[in-house]
Design a protein that fits this description.
By secondary structure, this protein is of the alpha+beta class. The protein has one domain (23-121). The chain contains 2 helices and 6 strands; from the N terminus they run H-E-E-H-E-E-E-E. A 6-stranded antiparallel β-sheet has the order 1-2-6-5-4-3, with helices on one face. Strand 1 (38-49) and strand 2 (54-62) form a beta hairpin.
């Protein structure tokens, strides 16, 4: 049992070191992780809709030097593990699809890095 526990801890720390993953999630998004080095804007999260269709949007700001490429790499890896499939990508925006939801991540400012994350129901 101790070996299994030790193996689990090793895997956890290796995964954490490689992806920058942390245990925090973005407020208003039930399972979208918050990349270490980003913080949610104090303006909060915009949400509207009903059970059939909805829209949620928030802004994240870099607390330290962080590039949009690093953001892309982190979310591409992390979201794939959560069942999201990559839809499109360009220099300032990339998006994912899971079931009836589309998640879009866009760079809105370069220095300091500011990104907008939006989740919209496809219905």
């Amino acid at each position: 049992m101790k070996k299994i526990y030790a193996l689990f801890l090793c895997f956890f720390f290796i995964f954490q070191a490689n992806t920058g993953f942390c245990a925090q999630f973005i407020e208003g998004f039930e399972d979208i992780p918050l990349l270490s080095g980003l913080k949610q804007s104090p303006e909060g999260t915009l949400t509207f809709g009903n059970e059939e269709a909805g829209y949620t949007e928030t802004t994240l700001v870099a607390k330290k030097a962080l590039t949009f490429e690093k953001v892309k790499l982190f979310y591409t890896e992390a979201l794939a593990q959560m069942g999201w499939a990559r839809l499109s990508s360009n220099n300032t925006t990339f998006s994912f699809l899971r079931e009836n939801d589309i998640l879009e991540i866009s760079q809105t400012q370069k220095h300091p890095l500011k990104i907008t994350i939006s989740l919209k129901s496809k219905n």
